[in-house]
Amino acid sequence: xxxxxxxxxxxxxxxxVGRMELPPDRHPIAFALLAHCFTCGKNLSAVRNISRALTxxxxxxxxxxxxxxxxxxxxxxxxxxxxxxxxxxSAADHMKANWQSPKLIIGHSLGGAAAIFAGGRIPxxxxxxxxxxxxxxxxxxxxxxxxxxxxxxEGHAMIEIEGSKFAVSAQLxxxxxxxxxxETLAKLVKPILIMHSPQDKVVEIDNAAKIYQAAKHxxxxxxxxxxxxxxxxxxxxxxxxxxxxxxxxxYIS
Length: 253
Prior knowledge:
Largest sheet: 8 strands, mixed
Structural class: alpha/beta
Helix content: 25-40%
CATH architecture: 3-Layer(aba) Sandwich
CATH topology: Rossmann fold
CATH superfamily: Alpha/Beta hydrolase fold, catalytic domain
Low-confidence stretches: none
Number of strands: 10
Shape: globular
Order of helices and strands: EEEHEHEHEHEEHHEHEH
CATH class: Alpha Beta
């Protein structure tokens, strides 16, 4: 596997940082774009393990840090769900200019919701896959429900997730409230694979059912039985990648 650090600009001229990983022969059968979860990053173990396992199946995989996270520039407090979507579109544009446009888009957790919205707007995407994704971007609001009054009064507030602190703004709350996942799925005319663990305690399995019900065929569901939300076990991440590779071959030309 070949891994290369990549810097590129998003639509606002902010420099984002990612990694392009290629299969051993450096001649991918197709390119995939991989989106990480809310406040996570491209180096999350699940994202890294899925990416590297997919290269073993011949895919070129591009993963990057959203604006304000990881190595990417920008302020997280100024970002929202819409900016994540735009970052994915910018990443796809960069892939088109330097390698090949992505045909598969994959998203983990909130990144899965972003992949659905972005996948419908990137013409070359032929298949979409979600992993532990919420059925609405508003799902993340529970992470800062105790700070809502402060956010409304001050315009922003600090929240803590997994030991790290982030500033959440009122505009993020307005943005996620304005996004209708059901409407987006109803208009989506691309194959979608929904992967979710029944034991997921962060994004409950009911979210997968709602995405499946709202999506049009061809749609598929794969249970990630016994896996945790973050896919901390490498075997779970590799199972996701192996399943993704087998499923996507049916739809990617």
